[in-house]
Amino acid sequence: MPNHMEDSWTKIYSTTKPYMGEIVKDVLQEQGINAVVINKQDSSYLFGEIEVYVLKSDALRAVNLIKKNEL
Fold first, then answer.
1. How far apart are CA 43 and CA 60, in angstroms?
2. pLDDT tens sequence for the chain (71 residues)
C-alpha cells in the first residue's frame, strides 16, 4: 500500500477467507462507505490475511456496520 494511502485509510477487518472480505466490502459500499480489499495471502499456500480498509473518517461507522451485520 502506498505511504500516502496509509495516512488516510485504516484496516477495519481481516480474515483468511477471501469471499468474506468481498462481502464486507459490498456491505460497506451499499452504505456509501468506500472500501478496499487487500489480499495478502500467498497464492501457493493460501495463508495470510485478506484485509479491508476504509477512510479513517468512516472507520467507526464501518466497524459498527460489520458488527450489526454479524460479519
1. 31
2. 555 566 799 999 999 998 999 999 999 999 999 999 999 888 777 678 999 999 999 999 999 999 999 98
Q: Which domains are seen in the chain, by residue range? A: 3-68 (3.30.70.790)
Instruction: Find out whether 61 and 27 touch, Cβ atoms under 8 Å.
Output: no
Total-model pTM? 0.84
Q: Which amino acid makes up residue 18?
A: P
Q: Where are the beta strands (DSSP E) in the chain?
A: 9-15, 35-39, 50-55
Other Cβ atoms less than 10 A from the Cβ of 48: the count is 13
